[in-house]
Structure to design on (799 residues):
């Protein structure tokens, strides 16, 4: 097996486990909720209208939006619960609909026969109507299973590990093997669950108890496998431990625990969904492992989701960017200087959230408008302002998040770019799109390795429209109290230069190096020498 | 004098907003141990009348008494458990075995598993389907005649005070039908069952019933034993209905005696 494939398989137990512990209970409780609702809908025309409209309406909400909405509804809680609830909601429609169709297709003569032999209404339902509707209801459960297993891949961005991790990180890293691996694993899981339910159906109908028991056991065992490698519960596994340890240190110091050891504590590392964040998460992972901790990486999280998780101690540490926090968390519209902003962000995060900004890593990853070097030379374009006269004819590519951010509004205002055409796309594709001429300019990132790789150049920003984006190490209120953790991560501060970060990004994006390898290379080179001069 | 097993008094049913009642002021009674056939064409109200007896349909006016007790005074579910019902098109539950179908009412009545099992074997033996061979089968694995026997066994399960039958022999081939009719008659005599039998087939009524009620357009045209019906029908409709079996038998008799005088049947 190739080493890359081996790496993918290595993650499989955890991700498959996460996927199963989400999907199977969601379907199970979906059945528990939908069956009675379906029965009620058949028995009462008054509630049927409202219930069916509501269920159908919720189904039309795009699944990724529903997951994000769940995070908001649960007060910013990330991880298992929002994903579970969203999946549960998705399982309801097919089961309810088939319950109604199944019950209504029961021959009226059978209903009358049930009444005539002396069954009460509930006895008619349980002894005759439901058993006769069973094949149709089960078909609904099978549909729900296939949907839920597929949609569960979208739990990755809300911090619940699933087979979607392969797909999301694969898209970011442009590693198609990884994407396909994730898809195949998800499809296989769908088929296996679907077939197990089919076996249950057949064995109930043909009254073969043994295969019924075997198939049921197989499903329970699958969920069991999911739970064993690491419970992904609503509470961070490491949080309670951390607290305990924190108390220990506050009280008596246990002599046999070395001061620098994290002693197996679980530390949860957050990461957003792009290459640099994957590499930084691996760097943090390495440092925590070296200090004896047990790191867990939650990657592909949205900016606000990972921040909220940090504030709630659901994530212990992640690398944020001052400019992002300045505008999206602190809601400031006008940027200030780099050092001033870092100080202001640190102060306000501590005051308002108890989050500790441990320090800057040394590089800045700011938004930057990039274009083909060739084009810029030909038309003698140097800075963003040079685009103003031709803005009407230009197309700018960028991720949808960028176009919604205040920084972009500011750039448009300061450089009069209101007429430029916005083309939303995943950041994976935008550099290629500029290189191919599908768009003229892209809203890229200054540390992105693909700027060099595609022979692009950054347009100057003389008016300072983009705020500074210092990479800073953020610790949750709980994690900040953990001296050993702080100790373990301190050596990273002021050690990573822009060029080193861009180079690491390029290796991953272009050379197919894994984030882990890029991280250990970067650690070897950067953290040996003296700190960067500020 | 015994109380009648079933008594219908001025029984009337109007459906929905239809002006014309489906059943108009029907008076009928069934003595204990008697078979009463209700005969009539489609839409004559015969099935509606039958279903009002065990309250599958509630009457608009009038009353029904079973063993002297007005059925509106008793729990309809208990009433149905105490009256056997054999259905048009059999009505066995396809997801239950033969044994479960026969024992379903007993189970509803709270009989123990052992008692139910014993009674089911006895009933299946009574209808000539040995339990050890048929009990575990599904209805779909039986022939039409066998299914109908299971239907009888189920109707007889709780030793009912009366049995209601809605076209029970309708879907059977002539030979099976004849055999089953014979068996039914002998069982009925042996168990002294009180039976209301709804049929559109006058020959069947003549063969099986002690008395026949002819229904037409929701009303009872005439109630009498087959002989009286044959000899003195009260109107043209009854005469026409009763004429069919008579012509059949005349024709067969003429065949047997070697003359074709009877003409076409």
């Amino acid at each position: 097996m190739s080493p890359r494939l081996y790496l993918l398989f290595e993650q499989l137990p955890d991700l498959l486990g996460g996927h199963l512990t989400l999907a199977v209970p969601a379907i199970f409780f979906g059945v528990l909720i939908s069956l009675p609702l379906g029965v009620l809908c058949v028995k009462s025309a008054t509630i049927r209208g409202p219930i069916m409209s509501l269920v159908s309406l919720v189904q039309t909400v795009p699944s990724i939006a529903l997951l994000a909405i769940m995070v908001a509804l649960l007060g910013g809680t990330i991880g298992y619960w929002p994903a579970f609830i969203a999946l549960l909601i998705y399982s309801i429609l097919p089961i309810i609909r088939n319950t109604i169709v199944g019950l209504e297709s029961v021959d009226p003569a059978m209903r009358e026969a049930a009444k005539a032999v002396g069954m009460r209404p509930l006895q008619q339902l349980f002894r005759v109507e439901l058993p006769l509707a069973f094949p149709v209801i089960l078909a609904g459960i099978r549909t729900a299973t296939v949907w839920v297993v597929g949609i569960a891949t979208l739990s990755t961005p809300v911090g619940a590990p699933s087979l979607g991790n392969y797909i999301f990180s694969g898209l970011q890293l442009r590693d198609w093997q990884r994407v396909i691996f994730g898809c195949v694993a998800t499809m296989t899981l769908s088929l296996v669950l679907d077939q197990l339910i089919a076996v249950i159906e057949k064995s109930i109908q043909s009254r073969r108890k043994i295969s019924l028991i075997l198939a049921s056991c197989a499903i329970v065992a699958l969920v069991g496998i999911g739970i064993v490698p690491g419970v992904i519960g609503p509470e961070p596994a490491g949080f309670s431990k951390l607290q305990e340890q924190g108390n220990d240190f506050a009280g008596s110091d246990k002599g046999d625990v070395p001061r620098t050891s994290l002693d197996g504590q679980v530390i949860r590392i957050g990461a957003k969904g792009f290459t640099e964040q994957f590499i930084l998460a691996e760097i943090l992972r390495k440092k925590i492992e070296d200090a004896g901790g047990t790191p867990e990486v939650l990657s592909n999280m949205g900016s606000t989701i990972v921040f909220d998780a940090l504030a709630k101690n659901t994530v212990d540490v992640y690398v944020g960017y001052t400019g992002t926090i300045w505008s999206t968390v602190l809601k400031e519209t006008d940027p200030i200087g780099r050092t001033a902003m870092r100080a202001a962000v640190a102060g306000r995060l501590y005051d308002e959230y108890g989050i500790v900004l441990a320090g800057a890593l040394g590089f800045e990853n700011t938004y930057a408008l990039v274009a083909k070097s060739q084009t810029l030379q030909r038309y003698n374009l140097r800075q963003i302002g040079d685009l103003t006269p031709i803005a009407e004819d230009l197309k700018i590519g960028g991720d949808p998040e960028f176009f919604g951010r205040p920084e972009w509004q500011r750039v448009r205002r300061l450089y009069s770019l209101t007429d430029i055409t916005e083309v939303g796309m995943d950041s994976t594709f935008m550099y290629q799109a500029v290189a191919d001429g599908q768009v003229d300019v892209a809203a890229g990132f200054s540390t992105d390795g693909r700027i060099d790789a595609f022979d692009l150049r950054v347009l100057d920003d003389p008016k300072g429209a983009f705020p500074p984006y210092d990479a800073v190490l953020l610790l949750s209120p709980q994690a900040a109290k953990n001296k050993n953790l702080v100790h373990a991560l301190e050596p990273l501060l002021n050690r990573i230069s822009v060029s080193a970060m861009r180079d690491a990004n390029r290796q991953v994006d272009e050379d197919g190096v894994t984030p882990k390898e890029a991280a250990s290379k970067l650690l070897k080179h950067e953290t040996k020498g003296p700190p960067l001069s500020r | 004098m015994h109380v009648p097993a079933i008594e219908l008094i001025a029984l009337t049913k109007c459906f929905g907003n239809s002006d014309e009642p489906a059943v108009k002021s029907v008076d009928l009674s069934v003595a204990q141990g008697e078979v009463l056939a209700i005969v009539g064409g489609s839409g004559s109200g015969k099935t509606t009348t039958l279903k009002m007896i065990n309250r599958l349909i509630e009457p608009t006016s009038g009353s029904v008494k079973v063993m002297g007790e007005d059925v509106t005074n008793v729990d309809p579910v208990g009433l149905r458990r105490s009256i056997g019902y054999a259905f048009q098109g059999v009505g066995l539950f396809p997801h239950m075995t033969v044994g479960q179908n026969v024992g379903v009412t007993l189970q509803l009545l709270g009989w123990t598993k052992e008692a139910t099992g014993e009674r089911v074997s006895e009933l299946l033996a009574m209808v000539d389907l040995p339990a050890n061979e048929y009990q575990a089968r599904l209805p779909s694995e039986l022939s039409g005649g066998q299914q109908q026997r299971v239907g009888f066994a189920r109707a007889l399960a709780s030793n009912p005070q009366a049995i209601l039958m809605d076209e029970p022999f309708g879907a059977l081939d002539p030979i099976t039908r004849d055999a089953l009719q014979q068996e039914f008659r002998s069982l009925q005599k042996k168990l002294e069952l009180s039976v209301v039998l709804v049929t559109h087939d006058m020959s069947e009524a003549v063969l099986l019933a002690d008395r026949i009620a002819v229904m037409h357009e929701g009303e009872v045209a005439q109630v009498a034993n087959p002989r009286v019906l044959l000899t003195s029908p009260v109107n043209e409709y009854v005469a026409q209905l009763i004429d069919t079996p008579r012509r059949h038998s005349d024709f067969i008799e003429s065949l047997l005696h070697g003359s074709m005088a009877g003409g076409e049947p």
Remarks:
- Chain A is about 60% helix and 10% strand.
- Chain A has three domains: 3-227, 244-362+471-526, 367-458.
- The radius of gyration of chain A is 27 Å.
